[in-house]
Predict the structure.
Amino acid sequence: MSVTETTQDRAAPIRPNQGPVAWARANLFSTWYNALLTLLIAYVLARAIPGIIDWALVKASWTGDAAACREAGGACWAFLAEKWRFILFGTFPDDQHWRPTLAILSMIGTLVVSADRRFWGKALIYIWTVGIGFSALMMFGGVLGLDYVPTELWGGLPLTLALSIVGLVASFPLGVLLALGRTSDLPVMRGLSVVYIELVRGVPLISILFMASVMLPLFLPAGVSIDKVLRALIGICLFSAAYVAEVVRAGLQAIPKGQVEAAQALGLGYWQRQRLIILPQALSLVIPPLVNSFIASFKDTSLVIVIGLLDLLSTAKAALTDPAWRGFYKEAYLFVGVIYLLFCYALSRYSRYLETVLGQGRRR
Amino acid sequence: MSDSNATATKAAAPPGRAAFHLSINNPIVRAVLAQLGVALAVALVAWYLVGNTMDNLARLSIASGFGFLDREAGFQIGETLVEFGPQDHYSTAFLVGILNTLKVSGIGILLATLLGVVLGIARLSSNWLVARIAAFYVETVRNVPLLLQLFLWYGLLTEGLPGPRQALAPLPGVFLSNRGLKLPAPADDPIWAWVAALFGLGIILTLVIAAWNAKRQAATGKRLSMLPIGLGLVFGLPLLVLLASGGGAIDMPVLQGFNFRGGMTLSPEFAALLFGLVIYTAAFIGEIVRSGILAVPKGQTEAATALGLTRGQLLRLVVLPQALRVIIPPTTSQYLNLTKNSSLAVAIGYPDFVSIANTTINQTGQAVEGVLSIMAAYLIISLSLSFLMNWYNSRVALVER
């Protein structure tokens, strides 16, 4: 189109979205390099997709043993049919698998219900007490005629969920305290908080987990031993508290100084001020990043494999060591990967939704 | 501690002759008491833990301290940048580990930045297919644990590839097998040292000319095109010398018996770790780059176009300098994350620092020293990296006058 054209000369504007051809022209072939890219990608997809379909569906085996799988040459879904219970529940007693199933459902239910903003407030405390309490009852047993199942036998998805949910809930108070310490005027509190936060954030989670697993027993008096799962939980708590603290600090810094001064003028003391005025506002500001840090901690729990816990990823890896079923790592990791993806994607969509909804009041 | 308390109290005390009541209701007294309380509590807990640890170590008859570093390590390390044998000391093993960590993180940061920038731009592409594929990549990769991805890559690189005899050869001299990736390498020839030196010299000269060029542009408005000059100096100069000397000797990998000889090897462990780290971190960097570009107001682009800047100038002079301010701080955290995540090497058997320290802990029982060394090493790396990035950030940050 030349610049000298006047409005009268111009034909009716071409509307995009007018049929697939116009759409393709606007979105796939707008310039010569876009056209080139489109063709290149189309070529690669045309080469790759039939192969993937072939592997995942056409040549796949859904039943039979490992030999039949190798014969067919495609994906071995029979491996998952054989191992899915072990991957999901680990070494939890076979005849009791309904218990971790109910525990998982109860934990997911608790998360889903607390995602609804209508329940935010006091109701949330009751929901969590009931939901998480019920899950714990199902996992531990020992009362109401249920067999006691020690944590050594826990594994798979319930362990992953328990470590990340309990880890985040337990690290939350410590994180808030650290954030308050870091923004405080008192040099001792500030110094200790800064040192803790920076120290923990500067080292990999693995080293904290090693510390929890090999050094924690050394810290305790002789003869006192603590459970392996609890050790991992302590490590995860200490780690995520530092990250929660930084998220909360961002919220605290966003509260205008006038709020503090107004609260002081009303004669409120430090803790009253924080509890009634500052923290409610700061925390509601940082709910979306808190959901994000929950996603991170959910993914990070997979590292407990290095200290020998059987979480969801470890059970998948352990299922692969069965000599009869060696080599079906793609199927195992795909299965576990999809579970992680479902959880994390749902959570990250939720975090983005919250950002828009909660941000509405502040938008101009 | 008490010193800083005293000065803080003095500083906080109201000026003049305000009466100082020694009462629990006095905010200053309360502040001092609270701080003393917390400091005391922390000290007590630390004293209790250290005391227990000392007792336990004595009971297990483990000598505390770093004396074990001078003892013979007695284990082999698969990949080393310096000479290492089983007779060498634990201190050398630690050095090997740190160098391996630095190697994988350094290369990883470089590649993740490149891939991340491409991804960030791709998600904003006007080509629907490109934008969709980039979005799909980011959403999938970000929401699956890195460790799972590492296991998958490691599986693909070891079990998924054929043995050395049936190795894939995508290019002449490049072999892909379950023993890793074999590449041709420069042979032991002095000409390569010259090439490397000229490459470094080319970079320095380019930087000097670029600085002079910027000054000249500010003074006269004239500007030399830097791209051909830079490319010529950095790549052309070494290439010219190489050609003039008749080309350097190259060590080609050859299949001999059951394995390859010669050439350069990327072990499956290193390759899996590097792939995993780069692919995972690039997804995050891509999102940062995208938000950085989106943060530059549209009016800026329009104004620059109205001034007659070309697309290249628009990107280089208007969009990038502003986008970098938004991009650099979060990218720094991603670099730190990549470095810390390289510790997952321990799960797939690449001998990084954590993996070597872990072996040392298992052999010597020096758990406290081992974990402390790991933490100290990562703290030093993290602090240096963030210092470097903060320095760079301060150079591109907005200077408000």
